[in-house]
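If you are new to this repository, start here. Below is one unmodified record pulled from the training split, so you can see the exact layout before writing a loader.
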Amino acid sequence: MFPRRSIAGRLVLLLGVGVGCILAAVVGYGWRASRDLLEAETKERILAVAAATVARIDAVTSGVEKVVRETALLMDRFPLTAEEKAMLLEDKLRLHGELFGMAASLGGTALPGTVPYVYRGPGGLVRTDLASGAYPMQIMDWYTIPRELLRSVWSEPYFDEGGGDAVMATYSVPLVKELAFAGIVTGDISLEWLTELLGTLPLGSGYAFLLSRNGTFISHPVRDFIMNETVFSIAETLGEPSLRELGKHMVRGGSGFVPFRDFSKKERDATPSHWLAFLPVPSTGWSLGIVLGKEDVLAPVAALSSIQLGLGGAGFLLMLGLVLFVARTITDPLKRLEGIAGKIARGDLDVPVPDLSGGDEVASLAESFARMQADLRTYLAKLAATTAAKERIESELRIAHTIQMELVPKTFPPFPDRKEFDIFALLDPAREVGGDFYDFFFLDETHFCFVVGDVSGKGIPAALFMAVTRTFVKAIAKNASAPGEILARLNDALAEQNESCMFVTLFCAVADLSTGECAFANGGHNLPLLLRRGMAPERLPRLAGCLLGAMEGRHFEEGHLCLGRGDRLFLYTDGVSEAMNEAGAFYSEARLEAELARCAAADDRFANVRSLAMEIRATVDRFAAGAEQADDVTILVFEFR
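And here is the target side for that same chain:
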């Protein structure tokens, strides 16, 4: 119907796919929202039912606990015969229907060898003596655990053969005299009423079950599970690690509402088709679980989604017909503009653009083509001028870099005929040009001057200020040989008419090559390091002195030291100590001292000043690990021989 790449065809296709996706999203969202709402309502309802059921169970067990504690208190305070104890137990059973049976064993107050037990039989209350027959009371949990722990406990559910002959759980209260076990009073509840209670819950096709503290089924619709299976044995049989973890969470007193696979039906589906709500029973440590099928809840949602899908499909077909009509009204004028766009793309900026009537987006597009032609002509003209200017600037910067590097000495050794000393320096600007510099020269036959400086800022202004500073240093040093005087005069010269407020830090030293005496002064620069053979690197003392060029009339204190054979002075700028890696950490003064100490320990590898300077520069590069250089790096090493 349409050409393979026509706008109309793509419009119909894209809108059809888009609307289809929207329709699917709306239906899907409606289904999901309804499902989530029903799940939330179901969760609240089931959890409410579970909470109410737990409260009923808790009320019964709490009532049993209260009766047993009261009975234990009476028997502890008033000595009773075996007959009186049995009568008291019968009275408690008549008054409290939740009790299935009660027993009492009190050392020192009961007749020898008697443990009266009263329980509900088929025809009424039945008396028996747990100590008169083969009943193994001494090994029963309800007796041994409270006797050893000396505190009240609920026993695990058990079948009381020889006692009440029923599945029950026992609450035991030990009597303690002088920190020793003196007897016990118990109260039993039959677990049959729990099954009846859970069977009456309004759960539809769902069901409820009850686990003991150890995971044993106390109540379950499948009678074979009761007292015969645990949640862990079921998990092992079915090979379900998730059921084992769920069982652990339940017996530890956890609560929740989770998807669930109904193990009672040996269900093996990949996706759980039920929900499980579970809550702990605080008084006994049991756990109540309520299982509800998802199909029962989601059936209304599925019916509603089918209706929505049918109505949406009919609307989708009507929408496609409307899109087809609209697409044909748009494509004709666009085809006319297609040919013009191709000519403009090929560089024909003078092709005439038709004036389309209608004032719609297509007409606006034609106007935009016309404006684009004019803008492209202007842009190409400006681009040509900008490119030429950029190339000119880059060329000038390359020339400036060459000139700057020619301002500092680059030939090493610079004085091969002078054996009294050795010197090496390097300068790596952060940009094409920078503000760092170094210089060295003879003041006379025996006095050698060397300086390292760092101008504030970067780029062309810093480079110009550096050139001026270097020129001043050499000019001033001809008439002033003391480092302090050199810096004082240099400061006054730079501060005069310094409207740009630039400044420079500078370290200046003058060494007497005949004696090793070295005088130095510092204008706010990094303190050099003195490297003596066999000793740790030592920083030169801090002297009075400020930045140069900021204010006239400043005084610069001089320091003096005596260099021995093989002693070195290591001068540098803050581009070394403040070099940063990609994590933003600094190279630091401490790292510099450590690296110099390492190099001193390997003296055979760094026997000359060049190798030492290059090694320190290499450590800075290794530390930066590819991070962009932020500041100029300058190093100068002077060795007295």
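Two things worth knowing about this chain: The chain has a mean pLDDT of 83. The radius of gyration is 49 Å.
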